[in-house]
TrEMBL record:
<dbReference type="InterPro" id="IPR050103">
    <property type="entry name" value="Class-III_PLP-dep_AT"/>
</dbReference>
<dbReference type="InterPro" id="IPR049704">
    <property type="entry name" value="Aminotrans_3_PPA_site"/>
</dbReference>
<dbReference type="GO" id="GO:0030170">
    <property type="term" value="F:pyridoxal phosphate binding"/>
</dbReference>
<protein>
    <submittedName>
        <fullName>Acetylornithine aminotransferase</fullName>
    </submittedName>
</protein>
<dbReference type="InterPro" id="IPR015421">
    <property type="entry name" value="PyrdxlP-dep_Trfase_major"/>
</dbReference>
<dbReference type="GO" id="GO:0008483">
    <property type="term" value="F:transaminase activity"/>
</dbReference>
<keyword id="KW-0663">Pyridoxal phosphate</keyword>
<dbReference type="GO" id="GO:0042802">
    <property type="term" value="F:identical protein binding"/>
</dbReference>
<keyword id="KW-0808">Transferase</keyword>
<dbReference type="InterPro" id="IPR015424">
    <property type="entry name" value="PyrdxlP-dep_Trfase"/>
</dbReference>
<comment type="similarity">
    <text>Belongs to the class-III pyridoxal-phosphate-dependent aminotransferase family.</text>
</comment>
<dbReference type="InterPro" id="IPR015422">
    <property type="entry name" value="PyrdxlP-dep_Trfase_small"/>
</dbReference>
<dbReference type="InterPro" id="IPR005814">
    <property type="entry name" value="Aminotrans_3"/>
</dbReference>
<dbReference type="Pfam" id="PF00202">
    <property type="entry name" value="Aminotran_3"/>
</dbReference>
<keyword id="KW-0032">Aminotransferase</keyword>
Amino acid sequence: MKLFNVYPLFDITPLSAKDVYVYDDQGIKYLDLYGGHAVISIGHSHPTYVKKLREQVSKLGFYSNSIQNPLQEVLAQKLGALSACEEYELFLCNSGAEANENALKLASFYTGKKKVLAFNNSFHGRTSSAVAVTDNPKIVAPLNAQHQVDFVALGDLLSVEEILKKEQTCAVIVECIQGVGGLDESSTQFYQGLAKLCKQYSALFIADEVQSGYGRTGDFFAFQKHQIRPDIISVAKGMGNGFPIGGILIGPGIEASYGLLGTTFGGNHLACAAALSVLEVLEEEQLMKNVSEVSAYFMEKAAQLASVKNIKGRGLMLGLEFDFPVAALRKKLIDTQHIFTGSSNNPKLLRILPPLTIKKEHIDHFFQALIKELDS
């Protein structure tokens, strides 16, 4: 049997990784400034992460959600405290797409409505309703397209209200910083206005924090800069530092009932052990403070490059925009400089999503390498 060939692959085979470095089968060491799509939050193979997973798998790796799992309770308490979202309730699943799927489903159950409002250039996942609210027709199958979704430009409150006043929309879903779309972010005025309109027209506000959450922006969640409280918050990626886990934080007033949501693997013992290790390291190593400090340093260095036309994003969810397509540059950085970076829907944007443990010396290394490639 062959693999179903849906991924264009770089000719690199990693065998091991430590903190911000990845090592391949040829003995080459790569600086990881992409973190496997912003998944690696506390660094590859962090000792706390390895220890907690090893201890848990030696005792119990999995049982279904039909029994008591105290690790889920501990995770909910610690996540609520560290994120300042104590009043929310937690439903655990396996991925960002599944988190958004459950968020949208819950909003439809709660409001009794079936339409969703999403934004141009959005990305929310590849499952049924999650891909329908993703602004990329190439990956939306006819089956997915049966979902009723309105798309408007990020920042356009007038169009949002025109749609919401029809009283058919169960939810508005938004990335406060767009990831795959190219790191666009609107104003505080827009996000606060969006929250107000959702309340006014009885639609739930879903903040997709799958990529931007878990300290990546310097705040625990990207929406917190704008002083809003979404009805539902979706999380994944950095939550497990590579172990598959996702979830939704569900705001007050949305009541649970048996069978409303469900999952086989979500919130299993190993996933909870991984997620607890991430929260422990985030707090003990003050990684959100590190994010803010390293981000400021990165922006200072980037501002010195005349070829960089725009610096986008916040914290360690960053992008360097040039006046030329970056595909060749990105390949050179991998092949010649041995540095992983990311792409986006914007062909001129180089995305930077490193582990939150990254230091200023790694940023120096990156800019020295970048300057070499730009000069050549």
